[in-house]
Amino acid sequence: MAEQDMLEAEFAMKKAFKEDYNQLLPILLPMDSILAQPVKPQLDNAIRKASIVAEKHQNSKWLDNSYIVLGKSRLYLGQWADGLEALRYVYANGRDENDKNDALILLMRAYIVRKDYSNALGVAEHLSQQPLDKSSIRDFYLTKAYLHQQNGEYLTSVAILEETFPLLKKSIETARIHFAAAQMYDRLGQYGLANKHYRSVSKNRPSYDLGFYSAMNSLQNEVVLNPNKDLNSIGFDKMLRDRKNDDLRDRIYFTMGLLAEHRKQIPEAVGYLQKAAVASKGNLQQKAYTYLQLARINYESLENFEVSKAYYDSALTILPREAPEYLLVSERKRALDSFVAEYTIVTTEDSLQNLAKMNPAALDNKIDAIIEDQEKRRLEAEANERKAALAAQNANKQGIPNPLANGNERRWELYDPALINQAKLDFKRIWGNRPLEDDWRRSSRPLQAASGNNPAGTDSTTAVNTLAADEGMKKGTPEWDQAHDLLKKNVPLTDAQFADSQLRKETALYGLGKIYRFDLKESQRAIATFNRMLSEYPQTQYKDEIYYLLYLSYEEENQNKASWKSKLLSEFPNSTYARLVSKSTDAAGNSGNPIKEYEAVYMLYSKGEYVKALEDIERNLPAYKGGSMEDKFALLRVFLIGKVRGKDAYGQAITEFMRLYPASVYLPRLKEMQEFNSLSMGKR
Question: Which stretches are tagged as biased composition: Polar residues (predicted)?
Fold first, then answer.
């Protein structure tokens, strides 16, 4: 009876478990206490009934089985200590060897769920030397394959699965395992073997979704294996028309987008992925992955960084926190926030400086051309909006049933795009093109709107004709001159304005290069940005640091690495960056205990022996590059410089620390010190 309760609970948990086919399917379903909450009564019943045997029938031949049921049920409920204890009891005191092996297999699975892979491997090694019956061999192979899958050892995992499949009967579980094997072959780049298992999915009674995703993945592999394959022969149109695929249309478009991108058809790929995002019906996980693909394409292929950032923002809002990509996406999103800000400054100042270099007549003509282009695009957008509104109203008249006639509830307006377009049209007809500002109702509205609402007999066609009269600003009008002056105001025409523009651009380029190097991990783009900075600003205040960052950005075997090190040492021999690159292998190997060395230097600092302490720390600081205490040594160096070299050097040391260690936990303290130093300098 206890076993039956547990089987019913396991069946319900399997049914409730929501697969994410974009991720690697686990060979065994996870033991999740949250997933077990709806079936807690069944599991509690299993524990209660199994406990009767354990407490009152110590001589029963079912004692080992009862402890296994106890252990497994407690593991499902998240009671790890009690569950592991019950399984260990069976191994230590069990009378039946098969029961002991079953308990060990379950114990190994529990270790895997807790990511205790070393103990799981130890149990697996012991079991591999035991004689196992047929069912135990099957469970052992699956659990060991699961262990290597979770540990990222896909080649070992699929090798074990290949030995396991002959032991498995046709079932949806076997279909899942074939799908997981195919996914691992995909990650290993063996697409032919992957497709073999994708085809096996359909032979093992899969669920509709499992069969569908298997077919989609197989199609992607076919295109990779046969680049000349005609995509029209795949039958995507037929899949889209099939009503059974209504809630899977987003995945079909997603696959079409991936295939188009694989063929370097980037505009088509973006179009399909945008359709996938629109077609998502409640499948937020799929929508998140669609946004991630759009973000990646806009960043890597189109270099449309602002759009990429927007897609990362959208993906992060709906991506589950437990998803493997969540941390990576959140870090990239933060990096792109800073990146887009710096990139916008660089491109804006570039454009303004190019305008400033024109003669006055050419500058005025250029600004007029910009205004004319803006007006053209605005008018085109309004024309498209009018057409959409008219089409929406016609669709409403023809296709939307009367809610009173058929008893349906009226749909809320903000859920209906047609009604939204009509509302926008009515607003513009009555109020005109209003700027976004407070208290707009107090402004005098156009004369044609004085009568209030739309008079009888006026329809959307009249509204469209009213709006059609707007032909945009004309050159020579006060509105045009005002827009012209506003744009011209930002152009740096004086020497002082141009110098300020240059400083903003220099600082932004410097920040852009560091974001490429440290946040986005794109060394080549960082190198290009730093080289551009040195070319445009040969006397930049960041020159020594840029030399150091260029040195870091090249691979060890690249000759440019040594070249930048040489330039740094020759031009800035006394800088912190020169000391960092001068660290020899011997110094790194004989740096001793950093904690003890820090305590020794700090003792000198406490005794007032500032000069000797500063000499020691500057000599040894390069030995701690990349270590956990590097910024701590650097912070103490800042204090010592303030004691030995005065306020000016102290301020420079603080600024240098903030540039070198932007993620340091001591940064808030340094900023306070910098503000205090600035105030004291001002008073002086």
Answer: 450-461
